[in-house]
């Protein structure tokens, strides 16, 4: 499920393996279900130099996918999300303190559109986040499978990727080990955070930190061994005063 949640999970895995990744994802949902999602992804020079030197062939797929995120083209992204009530509000690629950095912000009318946009960021996907109507004046923000139509090309690419992952040779494994050895020294740079602000008062949230209507998940070098578990949001909040289209449970 390569979407907003897949990105979080993938970044968390790479970050905990190498410490070379910083990512901040901040989503604010308004009373009508629309909102803005702002994501900043930053890769250590140690990682980008290692990838440039060794290439992505034979590397761990998550590391390869994370580095490829920085090559996203703005025009292609705008074309991909057209017709899904999503606008690319901000797109900036830069080098900050030697780190390659990508900052993308989407303005969306509903979470299905945002989920589709994030699936396009990753190149494929079938789900994301949705607001579920629980009844009794409560909504829940949770992972949801939208099951968008999949093209024959995407099916063929997935099959090829699975075959490639099963055929890793000893030389490729050695490359991975060499890369991880280079990356472990940058563990102190690890920083991954996700913030989601819902439009109603929070009744329950699985986030470690809740501030007013904002749920916050964070992984860094000090808590990486204990905080890398469940970063899939499960937020129950009041529907009082809200007029948004929710999915019936």
Mean pLDDT rating: 75
* Number of helices, counting only DSSP H or I runs of 4 residues or more: 7
Rg is 19 Å
Helical content band: 25-40%
Give the tally of structural domains.
1
Low-pLDDT runs of 5+ residues are: 13-19
* Beta-strand content: 25-35%
Task: Count the E strands.
Answer: 12
Chart the SSEs and their pairings:
Elements: H1 4-18, E1 21-29, E2 35-43, H2 45-54, H3 61-69, H4 74-81, E3 86-96, E4 99-108, H5 111-122, E5 127-135, E6 138-145, H6 152-166, H7 170-183, E7 191-197, E8 202-205, E9 209-211, E10 214-220, E11 235-238, E12 247-248
Parallel strand pairs: 1-7, 5-12
Antiparallel strand pairs: 1-2, 2-4, 3-4, 5-6, 6-11, 7-10, 8-11, 9-10
Helix pairs in contact: 2-7
């Amino acid at each position: 499920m390569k979407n907003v949640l897949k990105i979080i999970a993938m970044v968390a895995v790479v970050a905990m393996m190498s410490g070379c990744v910083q990512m901040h994802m901040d989503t604010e949902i308004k009373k009508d279900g629309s909102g803005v999602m702002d994501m900043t992804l930053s890769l250590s020079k140690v990682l980008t130099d290692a990838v440039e030197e060794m290439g992505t062939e034979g590397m761990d797929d998550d590391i390869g996918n994370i580095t490829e995120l920085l090559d996203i083209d703005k025009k292609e992204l705008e074309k991909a999300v057209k017709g899904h009530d999503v606008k690319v509000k901000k797109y900036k690629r830069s080098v900050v303190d030697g780190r390659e950095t990508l900052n993308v912000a989407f303005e969306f009318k509903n979470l299905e559109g945002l989920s589709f946009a994030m699936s396009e960021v990753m190149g494929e996907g079938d789900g994301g986040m949705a607001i579920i109507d629980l009844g009794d004046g409560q909504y829940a923000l949770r992972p949801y499978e939208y099951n968008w139509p999949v093209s024959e090309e995407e099916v063929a690419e997935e099959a090829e990727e699975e075959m490639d992952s099963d055929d890793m040779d000893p030389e490729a494994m050695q490359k991975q080990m060499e890369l991880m050895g280079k990356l472990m020294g940058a563990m102190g740079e690890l920083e991954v955070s996700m913030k989601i602000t819902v439009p109603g008062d929070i009744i329950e949230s699985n986030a470690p930190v809740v501030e007013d209507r904002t749920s916050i998940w964070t992984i860094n070098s000090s808590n990486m061994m204990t905080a890398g578990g469940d970063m899939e949001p499960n937020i129950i909040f009041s529907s009082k005063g809200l007029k948004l289209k929710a999915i019936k449970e």
